[in-house]
Amino acid sequence: MRGWGAVLTHDESQKPPKLTRELLLRIWSYARPYWGLVVASLVTILVSTAIGLVSPQLFRYMIDVAIPERDPGMVTWLAVGMMVVPILTGVIGVYQRRLNATIGEGLIFDLRRDLYAHLEAMSLRFFAQTRTGELMSRLNNDVQGAKNAINETVVTIVTNLIQVVATLAIMAAMEWRLTLLSVAVLPLFMLPARHFARVLRDLRRESLEHNAEMNATMNETLNVSGALLVKLFGRERMELDEFSRQAREVHDIGIRAAVTGRWFWMMLSVVTAIGIALVYLVGGHMVLAGTFTIGTIVAFGAYLRQLYGPLQSLTNAPVSFAQSMVSFERVFEVLDLPVEIGEEPDAVDLGRVEGRIEFREVFFDYEALEREGEVASLATVARYGRNADASMLLKRGKGGSRAERDEEVIEEAIESAPEQAPDQIDPRVPDRRWALDDVSFVIEPGQLAALVGPSGSGKTTTTYLIPRLYDPTLGEVRIDDIDIRQATLQSLADNIGMVTQETYLFYDTIRANLLYADPDASEERLVEAAQAANIHDFIVGLPDGYDTVVGERGYRLSGGERQRMAIARVILSDPRILVLDEATSALDSISEALVQDALQHVMEGRTSLVIAHRLSTILSADTILVMQDGRLVEQGTHEELLARDGLYAELYETQFQSAMEGFEAAAGIDSGPA
Fold first, then answer.
1. What is the extent of the structural domain holding 560?
2. What is d(CA 649, CA 336) in angstroms, rounded to the nearest whole number?
3. 264 in the same domain as 139
4. What is the mean pLDDT of residues 350-364?
5. In the listed set 400, 424, 448, which residue is the last one of a domain according to the structure?
6. Are 466 and 384 part of one and the same domain?
7. Are residues 615 and 509 in the same domain?
8. 404 with 452, same domain?
9. Distance CA 106, CA 100 (A)
């Protein structure tokens, strides 16, 4: 199956990963810092178990000794002991619970922190290919499941194991024949457990996947951008149907898991009843024969309950343990995703750069890593029970079962897959679809370079390579003659400021959004940055001023206000290099003028690379870079490029001529014949 190595067959997708020694060792690596607390917890379990085993003996002595001998003192002390034992057990249990919670919460804190840090280190490509709801499911549902595995499952298994061993030892000392009879029913415990362990494990994983899918849909459609899109196209009914399908799958899998688990516990209860009945049957005849005392059989019956309860849990241990390990597996799947944009071990701190930018024979292909199977995304992680490569939008509204939908998508993917294997792709093949194709240029410190060209020519891709949002497929991007892949990511962020066409603001105050660039900035610097961005007067005119909450993604502000907020934020970070998309086509004339004036302030004294949409920016540029189909086809000043009569001259004639005439008229210049 050439060209589609990442797609799992339907049968393969149904095979859950095995519980391996490596997985357990990896979990233990997170628990190792808490080994002292683990030892203390084991001690409390031993002490609590020992105290709990005293109760049946108290009943035995009460029936066989204290009452027949009519000893009131012994009766009193035995009765007091019956009250003290559960109190001691309860107090120790509270302390044990505190220890277990400290271990579990600490381990999960470390795991959640590592997971978040790893996700933060992922490239922009990863987030472009991964649904946010899936990430939230990993951080919340799966980590919570991992916590339950530590706090409940593991502790319960250890406690029950100790209790079973201790109880069997005491029972064997009391009457070895009845003990053997009690153990004889163990195979009846094991047979159903083996089957139900596999079934409930699969149900648990499928439940997590259904929940992740439902969370992703909620995240996509219940944020302000998604809600706006749904309303504009009138797709409320379609999205409700899709959400209902996903919620129904969660509903159905929950019922299946509950019923399956109940059947399992019912079978175990029946086996327990059979074991107790057999012991009382044989033990009762032994009492009648005079070889067994009444107190002994009462104590033996109490021990049986203490034995079969933990035995039931231990029999279910493979089920519970396997289910809980699913959460760890899903978290580790994310932690094992490779970091595409990382630091070299000997990465250098750039310090305060001069601002020289150089592209050396840069090639870039967005799909290169995908074809080579090296893209880090949750789509490449084994998605048991469904095909993650399927388009969720195309799935919406489709009928048929889940398996049928998956099979259809896999068949379509195989039919449309390229015949060339990933390892046969030459990165320099002439007909390859490059986003950037052999791009080379230099921007000297303090210069303003304008990027122009038709839509899809590679302008935005060029700007993304400078702050290392992506790395070149081939070639180098250098700052001050240092390959940026050899620089620390923090020093790049400190020296490069970027204002994109779409401004993102957190659901917080204006002050907090601006201080995101420099949390330690003074109030004076904050106001100066806002004034330079032509946004200060607007802010102080709001009822709460700088403490005004901007709303989800800043939607309480207009487009021009958000852009000026972004410019103020960049000014506050005081970068040496500016990367700007000055798109103002969606702004009114007043907002556009304010944004343009703010951009002039922010570019002063800095090296700037601007995706230019306005003639005024192009005319003031020290150099103009003309892009077409991913290639740098022309470079020079406005006059030089017009004289060449190439693509720039064509763009000037079609896009900038009317703006030029207006510009010259405003300046009182006679342009003469065109």
1. 436-667
2. 51
3. yes
4. 92
5. 424
6. no
7. yes
8. no
9. 10
CA pair distance 364, 342, nearest whole angstrom:
18
Paired residues of 362 in beta bridges = 439
CB 518 within 8 A of CB 572: yes
- Can you tell me the mean pLDDT for 430-458? 86
Residue 672 resides in a domain: no
The residue count for the chain: 674
- The amino acid at residue 403 is A
Q: Are 306 and 392 part of one and the same domain?
A: no
On whether both 45 and 134 belong to a single domain, the answer is yes
Say if residue 414 is in the same domain as residue 509: no
398 HSE (CA, 13 A, CB side): 16
Phi first, then psi, for residue 619 (nearest 5°) are -65, -30
SS3 percent helix, strand, coil of the chain, rounded to 5, is 65, 10, 25
CB 327 within 8 A of CB 149: yes
Q: What is the pTM of this model?
A: 0.68
The whole-angstrom separation of Cα 567 and Cα 410 is 46
485 band by pLDDT with thresholds 50, 70 and 90: very high
Read off the pLDDT of residues 579-604 as tens digits, 9 standing for 90 and up.
987 655 555 666 667 777 777 777 88
Token pair in block for residue 308 = 């079969």
Angle of helix 35-52 versus helix 155-174 axis, rounded to 10 = 30
Extract the tokens encoding 23.
């997985």
Q: Report the chain's mean pLDDT, rounded to a whole number.
A: 77
Q: Each residue of 527-564: pLDDT tens digit?
A: 988 888 888 888 889 888 889 888 776 777 877 788 88
The residue among 582, 648, 645 whose CA lies nearest residue 616 is 582
Q: Which of 567, 651, 655, 581 has the alpha carbon at shortest distance from 611?
A: 581
Residue 489 CA to chain centroid, in angstroms? 21
- In SS3 terms, 529-572 reads as HHHHCCCHHHHHCCCCHHHCECCHHHCCCCHHHHHHHHHHHHHH
Quote the number of domains for the chain.
Answer: 3
**How many CB atoms sit inside 10 A of residue 413's CB?**
17
Are 13 and 382 in contact by the 8 Å Cβ rule? The answer is yes
- In a domain, residue 406? The reply is yes
Confirm whether 6 is domain-assigned.
Answer: no
Residue 521 lies in a domain: yes
In this structure, what CATH number is given to the domain that contains residue 628? 3.40.50.300
Are 549 and 415 in a shared domain?
no
